[in-house]
Amino acid sequence: MSLEPYLSTPKGQAYLCSIEDFLNSKKSASLKGKVNLILTSPPYPLVIPKKYGNMKGTEYLNWMSELSIGLSDLLTEDGSMVVEIGNAWDKKSPTMSTLPLETLISIAKSAELNICQQLVWNNPGKLPGPAYWVNILRERVTDSFTHIWWYSKSEHPKANNRNVLQPYKPGMEKLIARQSYNSGDRPSGHRVSEKGFLTHNGGSIPQSVLNYANTGTDNDYRDWCKENNVPMHPARMPISVAEFFIKFLTDPKDLVLDPFGGSCTTGQAAENLKRRWICVEREPDYLLGAKGRFGNL
């Protein structure tokens, strides 16, 4: 199959098709072994179907597992695949489904990928949910996080946490300036060296829980969609999350692919960071909205 881009920028292209059709295309064949990072948030295995498409149960697990095989073939030997999947709940019940975790494990096994690390995206601005069990019966607390698993072909894929250092907190800045700290043994048995601890390394190493609110972002995209009466994607990943992984796992001019591109959040993050990018999305309304991210192409 031959595909033409739905939209293009100097650094990237978005294709209007299913990921299955893309993987069977000449374009995909030309990308084998050339993608440095696959970063995506596929449709979650939700109980209630959404417009952007979702399956459930064994059907969902098998679908994602099979796709992961084709996607992994596109990766460079030092490339990574990062998949974000939210929690799912059993139908008409306040109990959680194990399907998201089963799927994440199955991806690694089916595509024979290493699991480099499990991370969590915590959204402090998440509305209380599942609503009935949280707001009405008060039997649960707000489900505010999603799972993010980082896979790779190699045990040592391209990665540099110096690219994603976090600013020191004021207290740490004071300790470094004062060059004085209560060093020595800790109850855990870990010994803290004053010399090493008080070295200014440009920032602190991020933890595996990423705290980014999904509110007050994407203003240009939202404004463009409203002005042009285009439906907005209802489950957008924050650009800050996409930028974190792109900075962490790629270099400028590397190639980033999002097989469930939605409104091209990943594409915009890659464009901002001077990476090449490809997004694949089957819903025309979502890609139409993506034009608002790239200067109304």
Strands, helices and their partners?
Blueprint: E1 7-8, E2 12-16, H1 19-23, H2 26-31, E3 35-40, H3 57-72, E4 75-86, H4 99-111, E5 114-122, H5 131-136, E6 145-152, H6 170-178, E7 184-185, E8 191-192, H7 194-197, E9 209-211, H8 219-227, H9 239-249, E10 255-258, H10 265-272, E11 276-281, H11 284-290
Parallel strand pairs: 2-11, 3-4, 3-10, 5-9, 10-11
Antiparallel strand pairs: 1-2, 4-6, 5-6, 7-8
Through-space gap between termini: 25 Å
The CATH topology of the largest domain is given as: Rossmann fold
State the helix count.
Answer: 11
Low-confidence stretches: none
In total, the number of strands is 11
Q: How many discrete structural domains? A: 2
Strand fraction equals 15-25%
Report the major sheet: 9 strands, mixed
Question: What is the gyration radius calculated from CA atoms?
Answer: 21 Å
The percentage helix is 25-40%
CATH class identity of the largest domain? Alpha Beta
Q: Could you spell the SSE succession in H and E letters?
A: EEHHEHEHEHEHEEHEHHEHEH
Mean pLDDT: 88
How does the helix and strand content classify structurally? alpha/beta
> Which word captures the global form?
globular
CATH superfamily of the largest domain: Vaccinia Virus protein VP39
Within the largest sheet, what's the order of strands? 1-2-11-10-3-4-6-5-9
Please identify, by name, the CATH architecture of the largest domain: 3-Layer(aba) Sandwich
Would you give an account of this structure?
This protein is α/β, with parallel strands linked by helices. It has 2 domains: 7-163 and 206-293, Rossmann fold; 167-204, no CATH class. Helix content is 32%, strand content 20%. Strands 1-2-11-10-3-4-6-5-9 form a 9-stranded mixed sheet, with helices on both faces. Strands 7-8 form a two-stranded antiparallel sheet. Helix 3 packs parallel to helix 4 (99-111) and helix 9 (239-249) packs across helix 10. The longest helix has 16 residues, at 57-72. The protein is globular and about 65 Å long. The model has no long low-confidence stretch (mean pLDDT 88).
